[in-house]
Specification:
Elements (H helix, E strand, L loop, with lengths): L1 E3 L6 E8 L2 E10 L4 E7 L5 E7 L18 E7 L14 E7 L10
Antiparallel strand pairs: 1-7, 2-3, 3-4, 4-5, 6-7
Length: 109
Amino acid sequence: MIYITVPDRNDSLSRAVLAGKEYNIRFLYNMSGDYWSFGLYDVNRAPIAGMIRIVPRSPLTFFYRSVDMPDGLFGAVSDLAHIGRNDFKNGNARFCFIPAAEMEGWYDG
């Protein structure tokens, strides 16, 4: 499992190497709805997956099938039912990528 830091900003772009390839991840906090979302982009900032709402304990990209997606799943680890504005900052939630190789047969991405 690879943990990815969510910056303490309402809108940010981060670089990450996932499954041996470099990507850009945009994190966006929606103040009116009180939720986080993320989008995945290639190194040229071309979109691969649009803004996906981040909910805890859910395989966020399970239904996204594209040759450009990294082989694995994104998720948020938390005991909370809802991830608010400061929960990534204060450690109540962590954003992660689980490579398919670590899922040992239950995922056939």
